[in-house]
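Q: Two folds, back to back.
A: First:
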Amino acid sequence: MQPKVRFVLHFAWLGVLSVALLGFAGLVLWIDLSPAERHTLRSILAERAALLVVLAGLLGAVLAGLLRQWLVAYPQNAQRITEEIGIIHRVNAEHRLKPSGPVEMRKLGEALNEFAEVYDQQQREVEARIEETNGRLEQEKNRLATLMSELAQSVLVCNNEGRILLYNPRATQLLAGDASAPGGMPVGLGRSIFAVLDKSLITHALEQIRHRLDQQAAKPVAHFVAARAGHLLRAQMAPVLDQQGESIGFVLILEDITRTVEINSRRDLLLQQLTEGSRSALANIRAAVETLEQYPDMDSERRERFTEVIRDEAERLTQRLEQSLSRHADLLGSPWPLEDMLASDLAAALQRNFAAALGLRMRCEVGEQPLWLSVDSYSLVQVLTQVMGALASACRTREIGLELSTEGRCVRLSLSWGGQPLDPNLLHEWEELPLNLGGEGENGATLKSVVARHGGEVWCQLDRAAGVNRLCLQLPRIQPEALPEPLEPSQGRPVYYDFDLFNQPGQTAELDERPLSELSYTVFDTETTGLSPSDGDEIISIGAVRVVNGRLLRQECFDRLIKPSRPISKASQEVHGLTPQMLADQPPIEQVLPQFHRFAEDTVLVAHNAAFDMRFLQLKEAQTGVTFIQPVLDTLLLSALAHPGHLDDEHRLERIATRLGVEVIGRHTALGDAIVTAEVLLKLIPLLAERGIHNLRQAREASRKTLYARVKY
């Protein structure tokens, strides 16, 4: 029964009781009067009838006013106080009531605020003790998470249903692909590994592991090779076992072997070319030699012809070998570990080593442009230090200049000095000297072998115009591997793991019966050219973030700008700040919406005032070829369900966030609003549970009954 209805019934009962008591008192008084007194009373009432009617009307008006005050002020204030106490108790202990209404209700609000202060302080003390108690456990958990996050290998951990519950940044980079393409699903917590890698390969590997577990094999590990976005990935799979030895998931370690396979294929082709191409020449040489051995008395003219055959075939064989070796020289040496390094850092390392080992002064001119190299910095510094020591002695110099410059796709490192030039023959001798500084050899490495290992060149030259001599080292220039943008410091360490997902059930047809706290959500927001989707306004920005297992995953976000086909209204530009110039080079909606569709797959869509955003998406279905069929929740409707006593204006996103203790950052940007909406959603879930709304079905059915659900766009 509604509070107002219950209060009206109580008030009506009191009214009837009061009228009955007054009637009974009047009846007793009338019986006690004498006939003469009764006659006199009738005369007085008859003469004063009009006055009595007016007095009765005034009394009725006063009673009606009092009734209205009781019916409106007290029940409404009581309901509001009840809702706000729930916020303090369940969501935001720092929230305080704003006393309003009659004096008694204001005093009650002030008393409750005093109680809330005490409650908040006690909550802080309890939380501090809990945090201290769980500190060690959390520390161990964070150590494991940090270790996995910083591993150089690509690692994923999945539960038995194939849901990803742990991954590291390397896996994100390795498995990144076109989100709009088949198999282009991004990596994320709670997503299915089968949307990233071929399901049949993983299933076969799991069967192998189960068989080896049944056989009690020492290392129940499986291997397979998978293709992903044009790359070949070598996967090693190992089971995750519980305390009873039962498999509860598996670990995948991935390695990109595309380059290795390509090199091996080229090496096999080279060997085939050398063997097939050399067979005929060797056969001709062998036949000529055997003929000469069989006929030792052959005349000189014939002997000369056979000798010429041997010479010609040997020359062709030598030429073929040299051509093959020059084209495929990179395949013949053993691979050597190289590291990405700024050329300026290499110059600084040379400067320090020259000063410490040789006592040479060096002036550096490295420029401001970052030049990247892939080098074995230790070997380069050591061999150059050895050569520079010999050069300083031979050319009698104690001061060296160093310059960095670009030559096409290469970086040239020039060591210059004045005075006596360097004899090129000396440089050739030094190129062959084994590295030996301070009595420590380096496996026979020489300047020539180290430079060749890097695919570089070294030479000396005389610059007559500048009056200086130079020793030049030229190395291939590279582009460093692109790293993901760092998160803001306030966001803390990215969440790449969720161990609770070991017990997460798979995606099933009973999605409606899943508790709200266990669902995976894609919380999104859009910015548009205007507020009328039916009149042709379009989306110009989509921002989204994922919520999995009750956790907001800030690093798993979607943020795209879109080039519209119609102008942006001035009113909209003032709100979101996006101008036509900012969107001129952005992709159209036909490219972005399929990518967002893949990002939001297998999740519940959530937005604030979702009818507005969903209308824009629905109007683009035919144009883009994607349809969003998953369930949708609206935090506007959920707020109305959690706080029915609040006014319409108090269900705006900013007001809800303030009430629930959510900090509003990046308002009126698509991604910023999506993050705020996601945090509001997490705060609303326990409040909805108090009102009997626990699962998705209950939330959807209750939302349909709210007044806001009738708004159309």
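A: Second:
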Amino acid sequence: MEIAELTAGSVWTVLVDSARRHADREAVVDDRERLTYEGLTAAAFQAGAAMAAAGVRPGDRVALWGPNSARWGVIALGAHSVGAAVVPVNTRARGAEAAQLLRRTQARLLFVADDFLGTGYSAMLREAAGGPGPDGPVAGLPALRGIVDFYGPSDGPLTGWPEFVAAATAPRRVHLRPGVNAAPGPDAVAYVMSTSGSTGEPKGVVVRHGQLVRTYTALGRRLGIGSGDRILGVTPLSHSMGLNAGLLAALLSGGCYVAVDVFDPATALSRIGRESITVLSGPPTLFTDLMGALAAGAGAGYRPPRLAVTGATTVTAALLERIRNELGIAQLVTGYGLTEATGTVTARHPSGDAGAAALGAPPLPGVELRVVDAEGRPVESGTAGEVLVRGFNVTTGYHDDPGATARAIDPDGWLHTGDVGVLNEAGELRIVDRLGDTFIVGGFNVYPSEVEQVLGRAPGVAEVAVVGVPDERLGERGIAYVVATPGTSVTARELLDRCRRELAGYKVPTEVITLGELPRLASGKPSRRALRELADRTRRGATGSGGSAAGTPAVRRA
């Protein structure tokens, strides 16, 4: 294959530029395929040509519902090659959820890894949206013209991958001159990303090519990611961090993205060594799971990556020290991002010294931060308030939802994140909590992450999440849910005593309950909503049982 002239400014042109420079390097790898940059570009171009043959035009939406894989990358990049936007669907979504997303975005084609982990995605979708349609595969989705299986053969309304790509043969020469092959420009929509739904019904965030290229070029430079790096893709590609800090970051640097479809900590440890992984990114639970497996004797052949990237309100200095000491990863990076800001707002420079334990991070170049009070007035340095973000990385809005867009982005271009943070004098932001997660005990605000930081430093605590629940006397009270480090045990009384020593009385939880694992959102974050629902069910089940009075500290173990 011969690569022609490059036009900068889109995810597609990023791929072709890397193929020109690193044709024979591995670009994407999974348990089925190993594609070089030249091979990935050719496969993606052929997939795009097949989409065009199926009627996909610039600006149309193409949906992907499947696990992390090389094929996922081929399909998404193929869609970009013809100017189509990609709509990722999380593999945990059910039929009704997927149907709602496809209907809202008017997706023209849907690609599924049918029967992944025994889940019949296409059948589940048809069941939720009215069965086969007269002019398309699903009656309730009239815009949808076809469903294509990632791997399998054609089966009824499901088109097999071999039959799909056979509809168009990729030419030998890949042209990227302006207007040729409908290569998108920097202002074209690259993705419509679904929010996690942690505060309500998920919305479709519009993300444009130029935003992505600029944001992850800046992030890659700050983290020092280069062509020799190999990134383990554990976080789902349907999530902004997995897609952009994983696949896109690898393509921008000429590195390799190693896809993980099903995460098993012991298997992942071995794969890190076997695939010479150098960059490991994900939520805190990824690292706690790996540490637990390593402590249990798993991970033959494990070799520490050079860089760990994580971020969330649940990140503690103690966790970062554990990552360094137990996983042997010297360079640690914390940061903050959200889908509405192209996934990344802040990131620390990699550091192997004591400074790596710092939880605050500066913004990317060209990104502005502001922390404000409930009336929208800037607060003093070191004071908690709502985080506002402005810059090139902020979304232009939610797909087909001007009302939600107006509520999130003010006339001056500031994105109101709904996150609570503290900005220090050096301009570094530390996230404290979500506005909706803050609760009020006897008239005093309690930020759950402040309590979680204290509990997270206790020996034997792997994870912790604190939620507020209704209380007749105090208005609200706190409950801490704790997951113990494998092979250890923790007692609720010891944890409560630690809180009493380090926190004001109103911040001390009234209960500490241990769980085998925390419920999670599709993004991997702990689901506080699910924990509040658990607390409510427990409370209703205990009504009239002679338990302790409301607001009285209790020691319990689930």
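Q: And?
A: Confidence is low (pLDDT under 50) at residues 1-7, 176-182, 544-558.
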